Structures are given as C-alpha cells and as structure tokens.
Amino acid sequence: GFFMKIHPKNSIQLVFFIPFLFTFGIILGGIVSLFSRFILNSYLVIWAFYLIYLTSLGIRTKNIKLAVPVIFVTILTHFAYGFGFFRGIISGSEGPIKKGMHSKENLI
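Above: the chain's sequence. Below: its structure in token form.
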C-alpha cells in the first residue's frame, strides 16, 4: 500500500488490491453475516469456494506432507498481504516503518 502511494504509475492495478479486498471482505462479511441470513449464506459459499481453491493448491503439491501446510501458509499470506497493504495505505509520508531492514537502507 505504501509503495502504491509513492509509485502510483506502477502499482495502481486491480491485482494488487485483491488480497486487501479479500481480507476486508472476510472481516466485513463476517460481521454483516451476523445480521443477514442472505449475507451469511453468500459468505459461506465464498468461503467454500476459497477452501476448494486452497485444497486444489495443496493437491497440486503431490505431497501429502506439504498439502496441509500449503493451505495454511496460503491463508496466512493472503491475510498478511491484505493487512500490510492497509497498513501501508494509512501510513504517513514516512511509511509503515521509519527505517528499512538495514540501517543504511532508505525506503524513499
């Protein structure tokens, strides 16, 4: 998200927004589904499709020992990217962190 703010020509594409929209949708959908049966059913269908997709990723590894970790790591990656994107968007002009990983590294 922060990278998008400082380099909008390269970063404003739908593909970069999808994990954020997914994360936002999961959170908002979970809350709204408490009040609407239709939203709850839609929410569960979306989760079912997502789990089918993740299962297909796990199956493609062709290794039972890797299949389950691939599913969980993929979920964590999607959420981490979504939250990180949001954090970058709402961060100030200095970005989500003031310094890079290395003391001589500049983010901007």
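The chain is about 75% helix and 0% strand.
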